[in-house]
Specification:
This protein is of the alpha+beta class. It is built from three helices and four strands; from the N terminus they run H-H-H-E-E-E-E. Among the domains are: 52 residues; 75 residues, Nuclear Transport Factor 2, Chain: A (Roll). Helix 1 runs antiparallel to helix 2. 13% of the residues are buried.
Length: 187
Amino acid sequence: MASSGADDRPDEEPGDGGTQPLRDEDIRDALPEDLDAAGYVGPYLFPNNNRRRIPGAIYIALGLVAVGGWVAAGSDAVYLNAGVAWAGVLLVVVGIYSVVVGWNLDVDEQDALVVAVRTVGFPVGHASAQMGWRGLLSRPTWRILLYSAEDPPTARGLVLVDGCDGEVIEWFVEDNPEDWSQLTARS
């Protein structure tokens, strides 16, 4: 059964009779709703890293099914050959890695900011938090950039806070080398 609706032509604008193809500038990529903070009012909850465990469990299950199917089919099977077994083993390995690196994010950006303010030792004005991951096991780490409360700021610091236990991994404070004289309000 064939359909003749405009929705069948994804490269053309709907409702225009199919005469105007979409340009590259008209196509936009979008973040999933739970990651898009634009226009959000209220406290933003950063997604937990333990969500990595879900696809990891799926990979392990699919890998075990593939290896089990290969074993059950025997050595002379056509469709379930050694390639399926190797793919199953690879899925199990990737699944185990995904489960292992699915750390629980117990420290949110507010807690990390409090730890960072205590660490730098000066009153903080502006600050920014970024989630990063470190090491082969991809442990979540907050990167906190802080500026002192003066206008313009006289000091800045960078503090790395572990996202699992809140420990300070590294920190650095220096006099602010940036020239802000052009940005200050003139009388």
